């Protein structure tokens, strides 16, 4: 792509040299700049790209996108564009540079505190039952069928995002389901992405170290629905919102987008749970296309919410209700989300990503509910910790929930990062008594071993907090660690 083609969206641009130069790439990190790149100076929480303009120029940047021209080297003779918001400019430029791949796809954005990953995987399954080849962008990975890329963030930066979407298109994808984080929404990573469907799962306490208040957190999520601009050509836009959630009922939908609600209360996709056990769930749902009975190999009311959201996306995409229901029969969800670990000890071992008080409550409530139907009451043993350098307020809330809904709890480490693991554990225990129900073990591997050894045949062991992750962050080091592998090693 020529520089003039990339930057023609800026009429105020004054060329300092021939605009026919080929652009080799776009970067917002000066370390990634190469000769022929456009450098976008983005202001972050801990650093400001304007402080690295000199380095970007030294490495061969041919154009600079800035909010402040004061730090541009006097010797720079390339193109300079001053904008009000370089984050927004970065996304626009990335989309154009990678030839607007999102315009060629049916785009679904899923936001909310919990359930984003599972909903995206279920959407992939549902759309795959129709005429869609659907890629997924999320916390666990980026993938299109067997092709897998690693994921560093829940929602990637705009350059990675649009590069990946172009790769999806080149592999014949015509749909994408992506997790949209509150950080991404506040940092303008998806401001101009043309979503066809936006899904809201729920909003509970999380990320308050970043957003400070729940209202700010909610407004970040609201932004996704503000940019649903109604019909575009022949395509209708849909907002699919959990109306059982207090914040879902507050969510406003822009333009003439179609609003579909879901939940157990009166809604467009209203479900009723019929049966649940350790092998799966059956529920009935009323929809705008008629009633259906859905059988999914997933447990928990939260997964029924997730499946109903995915069902609604399929209907919004023009699929038949029966096709959507058939797809969900074999949907396994996402790795590390109430993931059952097979073993020859007769234990019901589950690994789950629950790292907020609401998510932990949902998972334990599910296990308690299924246990209530058993003639012999098995014990519930919960192994969990809390991440360091993150919202400290949820730690005692998680401790209280685990204590109240488990027979034994093993309080251990999650990703302590730069915090003292002992301090984190002390905060977890703040609201609960020290008694025989509690074991404390900062070493996660040993903590998991203690939890498994407390269990007898038929008992339930929940290992929460890390789910799919195959690492621990201790200090500033990222070391290999897998809950799944530890369980298999301990149980043989």
What strand order characterises the main sheet? 8-7-6-9-5-10-11-12-13-14-15
Computed over alpha carbons, the radius of gyration is 24 Å
Shape: globular
- Provide the helix percentage: 25-40%
Query: How many beta strands in the DSSP annotation?
Result: 23
Task: Note down, in words, how this protein is organized.
Helix content is 32%, strand content 22%. The chain is of the alpha/beta class. The strands form four sheets. Strands 8-7-6-9-5-10-11-12-13-14-15 form an eleven-stranded mixed beta sheet, sandwiched between helices. Strands 16-17-21-18-19-20 form a six-stranded mixed beta sheet, sandwiched between helices. A four-stranded parallel beta sheet has the order 1-2-3-4, with helices on one face. Helix 4 crosses helix 10 (301-316), helix 4 (116-128) crosses helix 11 and helix 10 packs antiparallel against helix 11 (321-328). The chain is globular, with a radius of gyration of 24 Å. The chain starts with a helix and ends with a helix.
Please render the helix and strand layout as text.
Blueprint: H1 3-7, E1 25-27, E2 37-40, H2 53-58, E3 63-66, E4 79-82, H3 86-97, E5 106-111, H4 116-128, E6 134-137, E7 141-144, E8 147-150, H5 158-170, E9 175-179, H6 182-186, E10 197-200, H7 208-211, H8 214-226, E11 238-242, H9 246-250, E12 258-263, E13 269-277, E14 280-287, E15 290-296, H10 301-316, H11 321-328, E16 339-341, E17 348-352, H12 357-371, E18 380-384, H13 394-405, E19 408-411, H14 421-428, E20 438-440, H15 444-454, E21 460-464, E22 471-474, E23 477-480, H16 483-491
Parallel strand pairs: 1-2, 2-3, 3-4, 5-9, 5-10, 6-9, 10-11, 11-12, 12-13, 17-21, 18-19, 18-21, 19-20
Antiparallel strand pairs: 6-7, 7-8, 13-14, 14-15, 16-17, 22-23
Helix pairs in contact: 3-5, 4-10, 4-11, 10-11, 12-13, 13-14, 15-16
